[in-house]
Amino acid sequence: MAERRAFAQKISRTVAAEVRKQISGQYSGSPQLLKNLNLVGNISHHTTVPLTEAVDPVDLEDYLITHPLAVDSGPLRDLIEFPPDDIEVVYSPRDCRTLVSAVPEESEMDPHVRDCIRSYTEDWAIVIRKYHKLGTGFNPNTLDKQKERQKGLPKQVFESDEAADGNSYQDDQDDLKRRSMSIDDTPRGSWACSIFDLKNSLPDALLPNLLDRTPNEEIDRQNDDQRKSNRHKELFALHPSPDEEEPIERLSVPDVPKEHFGQRLLVKCLSLKFEIEIEPIFASLALYDVKEKKKISENFYFDLNSEQMKGLLRPHVPPAAITTLARSAIFSITYPSQDVFLVIKLEKVLQQGDIGECAEPYMIFKEADATKNKEKLEKLKSQADQFCQRLGKYRMPFAWTAIHLMNIVSSAGSLERDSTEVEISTGERKGSWSERRNSSIVGRRSLERTTSGDDACNLTSFRPATLTVTNFFKQEGDRLSDEDLYKFLADMRRPSSVLRRLRPITAQLKIDISPAPENPHYCLTPELLQVKLYPDSRVRPTREILEFPARDVYVPNTTYRNLLYIYPQSLNFANRQGSARNITVKVQFMYGEDPSNAMPVIFGKSSCSEFSKEAYTAVVYHNRSPDFHEEIKVKLPATLTDHHHLLFTFYHVSCQQKQNTPLETPVGYTWIPMLQNGRLKTGQFCLPVSLEKPPQAYSVLSPEVPLPGMKWVDNHKGVFNVEVVAVSSIHTQDPYLDKFFALVNALDEHMFPVRIGDMRIMENNLENELKSSISALNSSQLEPVVRFLHLLLDKLILLVIRPPVIAGQIVNLGQASFEAMASIINRLHKNLEGNHDQHGRNSLLASYIHYVFRLPNTYPNSSSPGPGGLGGSVHYATMARSAVRPASLNLNRSRSLSNSNPDISGTPTSPDDEVRSIIGSKGLDRSNSWVNTGGPKAAPWGSNPSPSAESTQAMDRSCNRMSSHTETSSFLQTLTGRLPTKKLFHEELALQWVVCSGSVRESALQQAWFFFELMVKSMVHHLYFNDKLDAPRKSRFPERFMDDIAALVSTIASDIVSRFQKDTEMVERLNTSLAFFLNDLLSVMDRGFVFSLIKSCYKQVSSKLYSLPNPSVLVSLRLDFLRIICSHEHYVTLNLPCSLLTPPASPSPSVSSATSQSSGFSTNVQDQKIANMFELSVPFRQQHYLAGLVLTELAVILDPDAEGLFGLHKKVINMVHNLLSSHDSDPRYSDPQIKARVAMLYLPLIGIIMETVPQLYDFTETHNQRGRPICIATDDYESESGSMISQTVAMAIAGTSVPQLTRPGSFLLTSTSGRQHTTFSAESSRSLLICLLWVLKNADETVLQKWFTDLSVLQLNRLLDLLYLCVSCFEYKGKKVFERMNSLTFKKSKDMRAKLEEAILGSIGARQEMVRRSRGQLERSPSGSAFGSQENLRWRKDMTHWRQNTEKLDKSRAEIEHEALIDGNLATEANLIILDTLEIVVQTVSVTESKESILGGVLKVLLHSMACNQSAVYLQHCFATQRALVSKFPELLFEEETEQCADLCLRLLRHCSSSISTIRSHASASLYLLMRQNFEIGNNFARVKMQVTMSLSSLVGTSQNFNEEFLRRSLKTILTYAEEDLELRETTFPDQVQDLVFNLHMILSDTVKMKEHQEDPEMLIDLMYRIAKGYQTSPDLRLTWLQNMAGKHSERSNHAEAAQCLVHSAALVAEYLSMLEDRKYLPVGCVTFQNISSNVLEESAVSDDVVSPDEEGICSGKYFTESGLVGLLEQAAASFSMAGMYEAVNEVYKVLIPIHEANRDAKKLSTIHGKLQEAFSKIVHQDGKRMFGTYFRVGFYGTKFGDLDEQEFVYKEPAITKLAEISHRLECSGWTRSIGITWEIV
After folding, report:
1. What pLDDT sits at residue 1751?
2. pLDDT of residue 106
3. Distances (CA, A) of 1303 to 94, 1054, 1373, 1685, 1695
4. Residue (of 1738, 1875, 1472, 1728) closest to 178 by Cα position
């Protein structure tokens, strides 16, 4: 910890030490003393504020005034202030579906109707935050816009991808291989002939000017320019956003309120044909829901008769209107279910005889026999002709049928694709519901389907079907009612339907059913208005059919609709005297009692006029008590009076022609008044029928009233049943709503007394009634409340703003309205759960606020309530200004304004009038906008309106009632000196909210968002109408309103703090609502004030945090809160990015000296250190207020000692990530100068992340020797808690079957020391690091350099560690990995991860395992043997492994390419940023001279980046930097960092063998210069020679895709440089280079031999063993080859063999260590090891040519140290243990124990003894059960084997291997195949 502590004290004096104390004190509950460490270098008046407290914010408005920016224009200017057009108030005309908008025709309307119409036609009032989409909530990285920003990326070239394709280097060499002799016989030199190859190969291109002596500064400058050119601007465009749900700060714009439609279905009626055609037939269609027993659509009437048939009716039918000729209709179904039927009813002209007789001919005649029955048909025709002439205007029921809709829809969707014909017939035995498609019968299937609930009911996507209905049922005269119909329909669904037994009427009706198109042309609404896109009025229209939804639909009205449907149901004339048998009912809608007062408002049916004055019901022949099934549709007048009524007249129709008998005889009358007590009368009626015409004035009474002297049928009993249904957006049909609207309108009109129901309300009683009607709104039905929601809320808000004057008293209804609103909103919230967005906002309410709500006073220059008693002159000025205001001005503000009339209240004529006007003045200002019938009517509520009022009212019908505020207020002020009572809504709302308590307060809190949003919109409108949107923010709102807001915010914050454990869900909503509110306020109010509100919330939270045992929930809420506030689109501006805390000493391009003058906090800042900018110092947190809060949260939560906050890491890191990625993509900050300013707000991030280094996920651990990842993409699996996916799983994923416990990586990389902290997850770490890189990329380099200069060596090293980690973190994974990941098809979801672990590790129960096995899903078991279906192939292990890699599943090729492309660009950019930073660090060193010690660290990062998978672009820059570094500090490599020198040689050689020529040419140039520099230091470059030789052998031994051809070219290039180097021509240098190159080439050729045996592992290891033997004289190389062998063995799970190699390695090291250092506890040499294996003695260094270890460059590797030895021994022990050789484990530890004892390393010793205990207990347990292997003798005979001919070997195979298995393995091994050998087992 010492190191960490030291670091902590330096880097952030507050962050580390302070917070740690703070938090540990705070959470453990022990009150520790907080030491206030003063910030070093801080100005005296800033004391420290611990990070857990919020600092006082800067007063932003003052600050901007007092620190004007020197820059007048240019990009920085925009960072200082919000843009002038930030907020706009827009009145946008609402879209009207129809060509003309639906408004009533009457010019006279009562106030309620007028309000409704206004509500349905006025423009939307929308407040637009113009830049809102640039806030983080709409960050393109979290949206799908990421792809757009990735267009045009260059393809980065990676060797790993290239090599994958070029596997064909072995082709030509096959015959060579065969000819080579056995190694033993070949003297090493005999391969020297291959130098011939070297001479003949071609070099790569030489780098120009490489050998010139250019000054270092110049080289740096060139490198810098090259590095900075063609860089990718936006780092985050390349980085996938973290895996989040919908970001909390995104608020979706609510949907525009519009008319509700269900799923829409288009039905086209094509043709109707009967067997005989003798008369016209009329048809209607409607939908019925059997389950709900409800008709769910109005009727659609259509008529498919031929012109000839229609001709028969000419005398009776007026010319047809085009609207009645429709043959297609669009039905809407909101609740589609299995119970919906399409019912078709047919009627014909009335004739003598009952229905059965009339239908008989249709059943018996067949079309085929027409000629046979010619005479009979002629007779029928002439009869029909007669009836049409005489009875043409009457109808009779004829036939019907029904189609089960869902059968059509579901079978149309599911059956074979080609057929769309469906036949429906009732004749077959299968029954009428077996639908036939091309005679394939699917009846059963669709029937079963119908009963399966509502699953198949989707009408939007089925395939269109054409139905042919072949059978109709004849109507039964006594079964016409709907009840009967439902019984029939229910029966129809049964297999044994009664209907099937009936004899059908055969006919052919063809219908098309299809999903309705989006915007069909030629459509008519149910009111017959043309829907938009109606190109030609002469085309046959399609009718939209009104739906009567089966259940309530909760959608507010948005269009005017006022329809009445009348359903005569039954009549009982059984007890009526006299003849009345063929009865029809004539229905009329009357506006008076005279017969001529019938209104033409009844819609026509088909082929008739559009509207008529009367409708007749169909006649049932000779029935005194008929049922009816008529639907009569009426267009209601907008304003109804007491005289409007429905009149029913009953007629007897005589069908036979007799002398003196009239055609129709009236036999009864009844009626229904339309209004009762001012409310529309609807519902079920059972009416008495009068025998004679009703008397005068009957229409106002109900027929139930016994009128004197009238005769009634059956003693005034009810004999006629009728139902009246209204579909209206004018009539609420709810008594509570009606009463409320009536009272409000009465106040409006000032008409007393008010009649409501049976009550007459006098003015003195009005106040109580009004209040009780407001509170009674709770009792109203929800459906009408929702339908009239907009109007209802408008009225309630109006009552708040304009308290009415009743009986001369102002009545304050603010509280009552507030309560009513709160309860309505809560009702909606509770009952309409499906309508909420992620923040719990109900979409209907959100739409209301966004589009509908506006301040009633929308007149721009209204006088605001000022001091009373204004002078008259002022008044006239105002008046004139408003009077002459051109109309256009009004329009541009609000399209629906009326010009106000200046002559309104006239001069008071009598004292009485004057008094009235004074009383009225209290309410006047409000009354204007309330009454607003345009002109004079807005006079005070008592004066007589001038006569022209009516006409003006008509003129101004469409004017915006809530918005024409007339200018009389100032006039009244001059008269009375009193203030008009016009309240500002937001002020009143804030006040009501602050003072409310109890349940009202609770319900307001539940839906706080609603009131907050209302308040904000009201504030914006207020500013807009008073032209204050440009006013200085401090003067926009009065003090007391600010106080109310502050009180409100404070109490809500305390609610959150006190209730977050109890009402979690509510508090979450409240918290986000509050945050959005503050976010909104930042756009309109004094921002310093809003900051202080944020601070007050923070204060409440932090004081609570001290006392909480588990703070994370509350901190999490605070994070949400902060994140929402910071999502403000001007977040950067709010942080004052242009105020510099400290001017850097030298002005850099982006920090002009002018700016430094205006830097914050007094001028003695000058002496303050730059550290302030990089730390969360108080000035930083005050000035960059929000950024300070964000970074503070980050520092506090990531602090390792912050208990209980662990779960929030991901959340807080995502917040920072989201902010930065949003800035990154923001077009406003694309200029690099501005980006530097933005990055300045995040400079402390560097320090914070440096603090977390020990906790970051270690990305380097996944690398093996070649610097390639073994375990891929761990972050795809890791969990939030930071527990990584287990190593075994990772291995299995990577395709390595057997988990290797020894990490090959540890041969080259020292593994990081054990972590004492909880680690962050890989995903979080990656996000943090990308943020770090962003800041480093965009911050000003000069500033960074100054800061680096200030940092201590320790801290700089920490920074370098961080960069080292970044290199690994953003390493390119390679296409292969993407493909493999894809083939396993991961989803990034948590349950997938669990399933993955299960599937791979088989951790599922036996039963599931069987299930999966049977499905063949579980491919692999942990042991690497296959399960299930591969059981019989068990021994073909190597073949079945991860077979599914080949089956690409999810992503297309292109997507994989795209992912690889982006990953490649990210890797390149990230590494270039790291390189930039390293360069800055190096410059720092050059400046300070004191920090040489960190250069090693720089080099380490550089080398690490070379070791990773890098693109050609990056490597060029990397080599350039490396060359510059070596030339600046040559002694660094050759004297201090010798190990690094070895590493560098290895890396350079590795890249010299690259397949990409640019990489090769750079690498060989670097290698050549390295030799040259080494030579120049001491005339010999032994060190480089030796290191290069070692590197080569190591490289060749390990690299899989190593190609000697490429390396040969690089060697040739190096030779070429040596030949061209003029300066050194005279020295020995060229010769030495040549020797070295030849030697390298020889080793290279040695290993070609190994290359060809790549496929034969036994042979390969044999070769390695022999090559190692060849290096007996050079310990380093021998060690390398022993290591290689160990690696190969452990790859093949030969753990025992691997262990032996490691033991040999250790013995070798021990041998040389004993020469180097004399330590008693170290082993004496290889003798010590002979107990383990007698062969170890081979390692003794006794022969003559042994180099002494102190000679330059020998035994300098990291293994020739004590710790190296320990490492080798530990690995050996682990391998022995895996091999089951526990006795050897003990022997190994015998050597180790003395070393640890000497070092007193108790921890290690305890581990060792633990392992020994394990080993010995295993020996005991497995006594006699251990099996080490099976041995086979294998001989090779035949010339094809070349040098193997006649050789025999012993092969060791895993335990229990059968003969068949080994022979199969040898048979399948590649090299035997390649020489075509047949096998047999002897």
Report:
1. 54
2. 84
3. 68, 54, 19, 15, 13
4. 1875
Identify the CA nearest to 450 among candidates 344, 340, 343, 297: 340
CA dihedral 183, 188, 191, 196 (to 10 degrees): 170
User: How far apart are the C-alpha atoms of 980 and 1530, rounded to whole Å?
Assistant: 88
Using CA of residue 1024, residue 1028, residue 1031, residue 1036, what is the dihedral sign? negative
Lowest mean pLDDT among 888-892, 1092-1096, 1349-1353: 888-892
167 falls in which pLDDT band (50, 70, 90)? very low
Tokens 């309205």 belong to which residue?
A: 817
DSSP 8-state secondary structure symbol assigned to residue 650: E
Does the N-terminal peptide bond of residue 600 adopt cis geometry, omega within 30 degrees of 0?
no
The residue with tokens 């006047």 is 924
Confidence of residue 1756 (pLDDT cuts 50, 70, 90): low
Q: What is the pLDDT of residues 283-311, one digit of tens each?
A: 999 999 999 999 999 999 999 999 999 99
1435 pLDDT higher than 60: no
Ramachandran sector of residue 751 (left: φ over 0; alpha: ψ -120 to 50; beta: rest): beta
Query: Are 457 and 338 a contacting pair, CB within 8 Å?
Result: yes
pTM assigned to the model: 0.75
Residues with Cβ within 8 Å of residue 1306, at least 6 apart in sequence: 1767, 1771
Q: At what angle do helices 1244-1251 and 1185-1198 cross, to 10 degrees?
A: 0
Contact of 1182 with 58, CB cutoff 8 Å: yes
Distance between CA atoms of residues 1393 and 404, nearest Å: 46
- CB of 982 closer than 8 Å to CB of 865: yes
pLDDT at 71: 58
Predicted pLDDT of residue 1144 = 36
Helix (H) or strand (E) holding 728: strand 718-728
Residue 455 has φ and ψ, to the nearest 5°, of -70, -35
SS3 content of the chain, % helix, strand, coil (to 5): 50, 10, 40
* Percentage of the residues of the chain whose pLDDT score is greater than 90: 43
- φ, ψ dihedrals at 1287, nearest 5°: -55, -40
DSSP annotation of 507: E
Q: Strands 754-756, 611-612: parallel, antiparallel or unpaired by DSSP? A: unpaired
For 1700-1750, the pLDDT digits (tens) are 999 999 988 888 888 877 788 888 878 888 888 888 888 876 544 444 555
Average pLDDT over residues 1095-1115: 90
Whether residue 717 contacts residue 723, with contact meaning beta carbons closer than 8 Å, is answered with no
Pairing of strands 542-544, 523-524: parallel
Whether 1848 and 1833 have beta carbons less than 8 Å apart is answered as yes
Helices (H), 367-463: 374-391, 405-414, 443-450
Contact predicate 1266/1224, CB 8 Å: no
CA 814 to chain centre: 40
Mean pLDDT on 603-620: 95
How far CA 293 is from CA of 296, 336, 341, 455, 456, in Å, comes to 9, 14, 11, 20, 21
Q: What is the DSSP string of 224-265?
A: HHHHHTT--S-GGGGSPPP--SS-TT--PPPPPP-----EEE
Q: How far apart are CA 839 and CA 1070, in angstroms?
A: 9
Burial (0-12, 13-18, 19+ Cβ within 10 Å), 1147: middle
- Could you tell me which of 1607, 1765, 1610, 1756 has the C-alpha nearest to residue 1674? 1756
Integer Cα distance of 977 and 1364 in angstroms? 78
- Band of residue 1601 on the pLDDT scale cut at 50, 70, 90: low
Distances (CA, A) of 162 to 555, 1375, 1458, 1509, 1555: 61, 10, 16, 12, 7
